[in-house]
Predict the 3D structure of the following.
Amino acid sequence: MTQAHASTPVSAVTGMLPEELESDFITIGEPKYRARQLLEWVYDKRVARYDEMTNLGKGLREKLQQWRALTTMECVTVQGSRDTTRKFLFRLYDGRYVETVLIPASPALYGSASDRRTVCVSSQVGCAYDCKFCASGLNGFTRNLGADEIVEQLLQVERQSGEKINNVVFMGMGEPLANLTNVLRAVQIINAEWGMHIGARHMTISTSGLAPQIKKLADQPLQIRLALSLHGATDEVREQIMPVNRKYPLDRLFESLHYYAERKKQMISFEFILIENVNDSLSQARALAGRAKEIGAKVNLIPYNTVEGLPWKRPDEHQQEAFLKVLQDAGVKATLRREKGHDIDAACGQLRLKQEAADAS
């Protein structure tokens, strides 16, 4: 299995903690209280240009312009409309691309008055874990995102959409637990009162099943939610579509989930993409029910989003409903997601692949 590259260095303000900024201000001959002023402009006022920071002198603003970047990525494409799921394609400083998705509230799940706006954020350029149904890893793995690039995705989405984000899922391109150091730094910044001030219970980290990293996450103090991309309730089925299962088969994986559940108060979620004639049988539903009850997990069923170049299809609605009924009859808390974004290639990685192909032509 390909190993992740070393973490990219923190370069932009959005990847830094207050004490680090204070130290840097002192280094350039400025009082450390300027760090708090800078953070207020970035996170309270959502300013992305030094020349808009009016309580900083012109000379200081010019010095800062040469010192640390405020932005490191450019939004090149937005798909979707204001009242539906929107996908954003960002060009990074090295010419690579990542995708970020803004998901509006679902009245069916959260009630008609809900103002929940979720951003599905990427943590890597590409992915090394080669899930057979996923577009994210089709061009392989390139590098980890820095904490600054992770945080900036949220800030850019807010600027582009004009909407306040209040829910974050690390479920975009990449395996978050393979970039744990940068992801945890980003979580700290997103959670902090001086940062984006989004509660830990409104953040979810998704994993394909890196058992040792799940234990490391469990030992973190913040009550972050965990989602497992399960997609197969037996080793035989899961190994067909998720190579990570060969290294961390279900028994090993569930041992780490028990460790996590003992230390966290939140219910674990299982993400289960339904793929026709692969994992949509009722025997898989029964096995999934047993796994979910074992750990007290809830299950999110997601009909497969078609990916160009891959052979998989979503099962018909009758089979989806039958699968759901098996879970519910077993007493498992389960939902069937009427997948948002099916019309905008919302499966992670597709927009990036098209742009990279266009750039290469």
The radius of gyration is 21 Å. The first strand starts at residue 74 and ends at 79. Confidence is low (pLDDT under 50) at residues 1-9, 107-113.
